Amino acid sequence: VLVALAAVAAVVLLCLALGPGLLASADLHLLRVIVGSLLLLFGLEWLRKGILRMAGRRRRSSSYDEFIEEREALGGRLPSGSGTDWAARLVAFKGVFLEGLEVGLIVLALGAAPGHLAPALLGAAVALVLVSAIGLVLHEPLRRVPETQLKLGVGVALTAFGTFFTAEGLGVEWPLGDLALLYLAALFALTAWVATRRLARPAMPAGAT
């Protein structure tokens, strides 16, 4: 828990250090293109992995298995005594920091427009409190939530945000304004569903038509 809080604090400090300068001096369109591109990089990777997992081309997502693999990649082993497990702390910090950074980028992009910073910060704060409360109260039921579908949903959301901000930065005016995020998310969800169905089909024999 302390490591997760430290990662959240690091994200907040980074945004406080760089955010005001970016919002004050950077061109709004350029900032949205940069933030949108970064969100697209994150989102498309989540989307790709989610589709492959749903189609059975990759192993279904398991946070515990991924945690063990990450620790082994860092040269750590399962703890055999009561010493400090620095590998586990590093994995936890990296995970929370990267997820928090995605949120920070969204807040910066939403708050770049005049008068939008306070609502964006308020929304992020409310979301942080709600997610923390849900995690503390419902941590047992949440363990039974299918991770693969959840992560695919995150990929859809990040890709929708990334597309929205990048296009806005390039001068595109979306029909229905900010509600474009909803039909973009629906479009990417449909695309993921179609891709999953196609990849899940058995391969056709050579020479078959």
- Which band does the percent of strand residues land in? under 5%
| Overall spatial form | globular
Instruction: Compute the average pLDDT.
Output: 74
Q: Structural class of the secondary structure composition?
A: mainly alpha
- Proportion of helical residues: over 70%
Largest β-sheet summary: none
Low-confidence segments: 203-209
Q: What is the CA-based Rg, rounded?
A: 20 Å
E-strand count: 0
Secondary-structure element series: HHHHHHHH
Keywords:
209 residues, mainly alpha, 8 helices, 75% helix, globular
Please specify the SSE layout and strand pairing.
Elements: H1 2-25, H2 28-54, H3 63-73, H4 86-111, H5 117-137, H6 139-142, H7 147-169, H8 180-200
